[in-house]
Design goal:
The structure holds two protein chains of two kinds. In chain A, about 35% of the residues lie in helices and about 25% in strands. Chain A is built from nine helices and ten strands. In chain A, strands 6-7-8-3-9-10 form a six-stranded mixed β-sheet, sandwiched between helices. A four-stranded antiparallel β-sheet of chain A has the order 2-1-4-5, covered by helices on one side. Chain A starts with a strand and ends in a 6-residue tail after the last helix. Chain B is mostly helical. Chain B has 13 helices and two strands; from the N terminus they run H-H-H-H-H-E-H-H-H-H-E-H-H-H-H. The longest helix of chain B has 27 residues. Classes of the chains: A alpha/beta, B mainly alpha. Chains A and B meet through helix 2 and helix 3 of A and helix 7 and helix 8 of B.
Chain lengths: ~250, ~280
């Protein structure tokens, strides 16, 4: 069976600084892969290379066996790649439901329709997604008026609107309190399990990483230090050293 | 109105919308005066030319973002301005062209004004329909967050090009109406001054509401007409009025007017409900 995602020898430099250096890994069906590392390790750049926001200097990205390294972000989305951003990334002047509808319209090609009323498009699908993430009661609220936690949750619903076959989450619980984090995590786990959706996520909160990931990649200075199961990573001396001797 | 599709809806601050307005006006003037084609044929020709021209302008100017996008659109408009103002043989140069030939049904001042209002109404309705459509929502999404649009499967640049095409064609249509109502054209229609005036109308009325540019245009034109009849320093007074409005209403005059109307409507409907209950 072909891996869902395969990155081979990815390299990205900015001038003399190499942000990602010869990174290779695979993501298989049903996996929840966490990418961790200290600040400046190259996690966000690696995410950008996978999603097409940045082009690698060298290396290849394969999605379901197809080379996508040369494709822009929107073409990768059409091949099943969904993502959320590190900083909350919703459409602030639209309501929660309209945010989801925009995602649905973009994914289905309805976004070019100049005649029909947008509010009548894919209504039920939008309601289902909002119900899935628990935002039904706030569907008419402007996205900019939602709490930070709700905006992150809405972002997840918007990411799911493209019906991804692989979901990349950039610090999905960043800025949330412990209770919100646990709720968000439970929701992501439920969605991933029910849809058999493989997930790759960048995360700083080690409680989140070790309670959710089935595999962990540790990036340090743009290179893969360890690629192993969470319990192996937790005990790895090199990882502890990378985090300045902290127990992780 | 056409400019606000770019500025308010899509977030593209174009400083060269006069190019399309001037194009519409000049195609009608040249067509009817120099080439003896009918007014309606000239209008169709103007719309047809505005399509490839808007694509070309979009492809050039959208290579840059924000301020530099605006400067590129302005530069393209200035190229057209210089071309028209120096080409005496064809365009009449700085003097422009006088004596636009109109069909008999349009050759009357009152009819021309009703015609202008009718075109404005139809264009406004069509634009309103577009804004409430999926395409309109997507243009708003591109303005809010182009990166997010890209990560949801849409190419933001294609939507921006679409907005520039619609905006350009609309401006060309309004230009053809201008030529009909004024009866003459001049190269200044292409210049950055015209584009700046259009942008000022949008900013003054408020880009966040549909009727904002119309409100801005009415305020600006009425103020200008009144001051010109009273004083030789019309531009100075208009400038002061614009600055005062910008300081008092940074989001434009439209939003507070809309708020007052909304309050009045909700006030009258709630009093009606009380009356009903009584």
């Amino acid at each position: 069976m072909k891996p869902v995602l395969q990155a081979t020898g990815l390299v990205k430099s900015f001038g003399a600084f190499t942000a990602v250096s010869d990174v290779s890994f695979t993501v298989n069906s049903g996996e929840a892969l966490a990418i961790i590392g200290p600040n400046g390790a190259g996690k966000s750049t690696l995410f950008d290379l996978l999603t097409g926001r940045k082009s690698p200097d060298r290396g290849e990205v394969m999605l379901f066996g197809e080379s996508v390294g040369h494709l822009p972000p929107w073409d990768r989305v059409k091949r099943g790649l969904g993502r959320s951003f590190q900083v909350s990334s919703v459409f602030p002047t639209f309501s929660a439901k309209e945010n989801v509808q925009i995602g649905l319209m973009l994914a289905s090609g309805n976004s070019w329709n100049p005649l029909q009323r947008a509010s009548t498009i894919q209504n039920d699908e939008a309601d289902t997604l909002l119900e899935m993430v628990g935002l039904t009661t706030k569907k008419t609220v402007l996205a900019s008026d939602l709490s930070y936690g709700d905006q992150r949750t809405l972002e997840l619903a918007v990411a799911l609107s493209t019906k991804p076959k692989l979901l990349l989450l950039d610090e999905p619980t960043a800025g949330m309190g412990r209770e919100e984090t646990n709720e968000c995590l439970a929701m992501i786990r439920k969605i991933a399990t029910s849809q058999n959706l493989p997930i790759v996520f960048v995360e700083h909160d080690m409680d989140v990483v070790f309670s959710f990931a089935t595999r962990v990649i540790v990036l340090v200075a743009g290179k893969v230090l360890v690629d192993a199961a969470p319990e192996v990573v937790r005990k790895d001396e090199r990882v502890k050293e990378a985090y300045f001797g902290e127990d992780i | 109105m056409s400019l606000n599709l770019l500025v308010g809806t899509t977030g593209l601050i174009s400083m060269g919308q006069g190019l399309f307005f001037g194009l519409g006006a000049y195609v009608v003037a040249l067509g009817t005066i120099r080439f003896n084609i009918s007014y309606s044929s000239a209008v169709i020709l103007a719309i047809a030319i505005s399509l490839p021209l808007s694509i070309l302008v979009a492809l050039i100017s959208l290579r840059a973002k924000h301020l530099f996008f605006g400067l590129l659109t302005m530069a393209i408009g200035q190229v057209a301005f210089v071309f028209v103002s120096r080409n005496y043989k064809l365009t009449g140069g700085d003097d422009g062209l006088v004596g636009v030939v109109l069909p008999s049904w349009l050759d009357n001042d009152n009819i021309q004004h009703y015609f202008a209002v009718l075109v404005l109404f139809i264009a406004g309705m069509a634009l309103l329909r577009l804004l409430s459509s999926p395409l309109g929502s997507t243009l708003g999404a591109v303005r809010d967050n182009p990166d997010r649009v890209a990560s949801l499967g849409g190419n933001p640049k294609l939507y921006e090009i679409a907005a520039m095409i619609v905006g350009g064609m609309l401006a060309a249509i309004f230009g053809t109406v201008w030529a009909a109502t004024e009866g003459s054209v001049e190269p200044n229609l292409f210049s950055w001054v015209t584009s700046a005036m259009l942008l000022m109308m949008v900013a003054l009325g408020g880009r966040s509401i549909f009727l904002g540019p119309l409100i801005g245009a009415v305020i600006l034109e009425i103020t200008r007409a009144y001051v010109q009849s009273q004083s030789a320093n019309a531009d100075l007074v208009v400038g002061i009025v614009v600055i005062t409005c910008a300081v008092l209403y940074p989001e434009g005059i439209g939003p507070p007017i809309k708020k007052i109307f909304s309050q009045k409507i909700s006030g009258s409907s709630s009093s009606a409900k009380v009356g009903d209950a009584g």
